[in-house]
Amino acid sequence: MKNMKFLVVFALILGLTACKKKEAPVRVKTPVEVNGKLKVVGTQLMNEHGDTMVLRGVSFGWHCLHPRFYNDSCVGFLANDWKCNVVRAAMGVDLDLGYRTDPEGSVNCMTTVVDAAIKHGIYVLIDFHSHKIHTREAKAFFTLMANKYKDSPNVIYEIFNEPDDSCTWKAVKKYSEEVISTIRTIDPDNIILVGCPRWDQEIQLVGADPLRNQTNIMYTMHFYAGTHKQWLRDRIDSAMAKGIPVFISECAGMEATGDGPVDYKEWPLYLKWMDDHKLSWCTWSLSDKAETCSMLKHGASSTGYWPEEDIKEWGLISRTAIRSRNPVVTETKK
Questions:
Q1: Residues designated catalytic
Q2: Cys bridge to 59: 50, 242, 282, 309, which one at CB 3.0-4.6 A?
């Protein structure tokens, strides 16, 4: 009788083990696997299936100031741990070791991040990070980028970071038309982001005189919640009501200087507003400068895998906002 009970128990254990072995493994699908090539329909960013798409992620700091973070490992960690479905590679143009003085080094830095984003299956903004108009340089740079990445659904071209208050919309519009034409002769489809005057806040000028006969373009808006209040949200609402598609390629919770305290009243209001309008955004910035908006502490690893004690307050706030909103899609392995 004891032998019989032993055999029954043994059989049950074998059965449970067999059941466990039959459980099919699952894997996380990358954002680009799920959504494919993006497009703009009306004011909304959409995936290739015609579903609304919201990109949320992190902007790297100026490449010429923080090049040590421009590597595959950082991009992979942002994709896998922070759950970013987009990163922004910010190529400094005017500063020392920027594109105008070191084009080869600048391009190498950018392509490292773009290639990593493609490898890890997330989207990437190729950002010409300048405050001034440099038409010749921009056309040369985006000719290189479009020829290299025209067949990649991951890539979004951001052709002007933040036109400053010396740039009129007429001048920015002319610049944008020339650069867009340069890209479109090579890459007819990938999304292009267009800046507007006064650090991407005078979008009402775009609403009054938008670019014509263009497809798959959006206009960038930037905000720093400690400085920019309800008036800027109202301005963007008015522009979108006129059919202007908006992409928030840079934002943060403190003052526009990048310093000062995080505004814990306005940042949640901006988050809700972006959620309500299904607006895409990148927080500024992945860097270790001694300022509030830099997400990492001095001495943090150059290759990601940052423990929480190496992430500053704004980095933790950004990580939480991204992780809590970006969906994780899994599939059963066959």
A1: 162, 250
A2: 282
